[in-house]
Specification:
Elements: H1 2-24, E1 29-30, E2 37-46, H2 52-60, E3 66-72, E4 78-83, H3 85-92, E5 97-108, E6 111-112, H4 119-122, E7 143-149, E8 163-168, H5 182-191, E9 202-207, E10 214-216, H6 217-228, E11 233-238, E12 240-241, H7 246-257, E13 261-265, E14 284-289, E15 307-310, E16 314-317, E17 325-329, H8 331-348, H9 353-363, E18 365-366, E19 379-380, E20 552-553, E21 563-566, E22 576-580
Helix pairs in contact: 5-8, 6-7
Biased composition (Pro residues): 517-527
Region (Disordered): 392-539
GO molecular function, one term: serine-type endopeptidase activity
Length: 581
């Protein structure tokens, strides 16, 4: 009886332990870089041709070992589920599965302090010092800002009845109650009556984080699927931080294709943002600066940061009452300033990620920020005079000053403007401007320009100014997916003839089927010993390890090549040890 117990334990060990090693090396399985991985939970991404019916059929074979948590039909195709090791192995072999990614936890990105709010004062002027005013004309009216966070205190006076619960992914109550305070604080910066940028935008709470500020990847994907399925002018603010994710990159790209503009907090780890989730080229990544125009010590940086906004010691709404205030800091507070500005641009008439991204960065103040790391764009969020009406209804000053209200007649400025105008001028300028205008003038200029205009590019460029060096080091091996644009230099040309020796070591065992076509010419010289040609395949399958010398075995089949299973003569039906021939 004891021997049979040993047999069962050994069999289980080989299936579970060796099987887990095999799973980890599978090319379809993408391990999360985060340390906050949720054991046993996965995001299964299907090919575009797959449907929800396929997802149900795929898991039906593992009914007792699979629990589907969420089904994704808008954006990425797939589902989030708890999977056993055996179910995971089966799904990795399914041709309908594109890849499987581990589920992990994001965190809200904020710090806590208690001084006055200065962010609104900063984003409506080019230089310091602050002028104690926030002038604006557009209010984001008619635009929906979806706040992906811990929920919102919907009854807070900052929102004036404009805040509603759009989707509560964390709780089945669909109340979006904020037990943390982070979401309410962020939402009021987006669109609060007193502390907000877009003061009349609609606030839509999408609760993807719990009261501890933990936001799972599966919850975020569910929230994006929800917003993609909506209509109207939509902005998404994600004031969270986490490691990079292929499925999240795909979902953000799908949101962009659906007309949604996604704004991301760059993160508070003081690292290169290109190594985090804010690397997405289909979203606007926001870094944080302090009141002296210095990079916040905690803010991430790098070429993947698109723009900077106030993020240190920001006063906004709190959750202790409907009139409460709170002070926080972080890139979580910087991102909603930009989300509010995006809502203003949508009300102004701009639409689509490309147009809004280009206008937002072209209007930003260049060269005023300090202590930025190499590769970071020196662009500070700025609401230009286009955003300030002649008689704004909610400007804090008693009457519009001459600096805020436009003059009756255009000034005859001899110097070119720093930023392009967005409305055609009545008379041509005396000198060419530094940059071409974003929109053509109403009539041609009376005199030709001194220099020819720049040739238009085939498509809108992502960066405001090209960087002198490439953003990333080239990888030593080809990527799994092709790049979006061709490389500037051709790849290394192929050799004129076949190599004399094979590029890789031959496999230990012959392939199961011959190659599809013979080689065009025989090898220049035969090998010293016969070898089997390895069969190329699109994916690598790593088999479980064999039993080595002196280890327990049950038959010759389980021993490594060159060994055989020798049993004790008396107990020929029992286990033996692998010995060399």
């Amino acid at each position: 009886m004891r021997r049979w117990c040993y047999f069962l334990v050994f069999s289980l060990f080989r299936k579970v332990v060796i099987g887990q090693d095999w799973i980890g090396a599978h090319p379809k399985l993408r391990r999360a870089l985060s340390t906050n991985v949720i054991p046993g939970e996965y995001i299964v991404v299907l090919h575009e041709t797959a449907t929800a019916v396929d997802a149900v059929q795929m898991t039906s074979a593992y009914r007792d070992q699979t629990h589907i948590q969420r089904l994704y039909q808008n954006g990425i195709q797939g589902f989030a589920a708890e999977l056993s090791a055996f179910a995971l192995i089966g799904l990795l072999h399914d041709d309908r599965v594109e890849y499987i990614e581990e589920n992990f936890v994001f965190q809200t990105a904020n710090y806590q302090y208690n001084p006055p709010n200065w962010g609104l004062d900063r984003i409506d002027q080019i230089d310091l010092p602050l002028d104690q005013e926030f002038g604006y004309g557009y209010t984001g009216n008619g635009v929906d800002i979806y706040v992906f966070d811990t929920g919102i205190r919907l009854q807070h006076q900052e929102f004036g009845g404009r805040a509603v619960c759009s989707r509560d992914v964390v709780s089945s109550s669909n109340a979006c109650a904020d037990g943390n305070g982070h979401g309410t604080h962020v939402a009021a910066i987006c669109a609060g009556t007193k502390y907000g940028v877009a003061k009349q935008a609609n606030v839509r709470s999408v609760r993807v984080c719990d009261n501890d500020g933990a936001c799972t990847l599966s919850n975020i994907l569910t929230g994006l699927s929800h917003v993609i399925n909506r209509s109207g002018k939509r902005v998404v603010n994600m004031s969270i931080q986490g490691s990079s994710s292929s499925s999240l990159d795909s979902a953000i790209a799908d949101a962009r294709d659906a007309g949604v503009v996604v704004v991301l907090a760059a993160g508070n780890w003081n690292v290169n943002a290109c190594n985090t989730y804010s690397r997405s080229p289909d979203a606007i990544s926001v870094g944080a600066v302090d009141a002296l125009d210095f990079k916040a010590s905690f803010s991430n940086y790098g070429s993947c940061v698109d723009i900077w906004a106030p993020g240190v010691e920001i006063v906004s709404a709190g959750i202790s009452s409907n009139t409460a205030t709170d002070t926080k800091q972080g890139t979580s507070q910087a991102a909603p300033f930009v989300a509010g500005a995006v809502a203003m641009l949508m009300q102004e008439g701009f639409s689509g990620f490309t147009d809004i991204y280009t206008v937002l960065r072209s209007r930003a103040v260049a060269g005023t920020l300090n202590n930025l790391r190499t590769g970071s764009p020196n662009l500070m969020l700025y609401l230009t005079q286009e955003h300030i009406s002649a008689s704004p209804s909610q400007v804090r000053s008693a009457a519009p000053t001459s600096s805020v209200a436009p003059s009756v007649t255009p000034t005859d400025s001899m110097a070119p403007s720093v930023f392009p105008s967005h409305r055609p001028s009545i008379e041509p300028t005396h000198h060419p401007t530094l940059f071409p205008t974003l929109r053509p003038s109403a009539s041609p200029s009376k005199q030709p320009s001194l220099k020819p205009s720049y040739a238009p590019s085939s498509g809108p460029s992502r960066t405001f100014q090209p960087s002198p060096f490439p953003s990333h080091e080239p990888s030593s091996s080809p990527t799994q997916f092709p790049s979006k644009a061709p490389t500037t230099t051709p790849s290394v040309p192929p050799s004129s003839g076949p190599t004399q020796v094979p590029s890789h070591e031959p496999s230990a065992s012959p392939t199961q089927s011959p190659s599809e076509a013979p080689s065009p010419a025989p090898s220049p010289r035969p090998s010293s010993s016969p070898s089997t040609t390895p069969q190329p395949s699109e994916r690598t399958i790593i088999k479980p390890a064999c039993t080595r010398l002196n280890q327990l075995c049950w038959s010759d089949r389980g021993c490594c090549p060159g060994h055989q299973c020798r049993r004790r003569r008396v107990f020929r039906f029992m286990a033996g040890n692998c010995k060399a021939w």
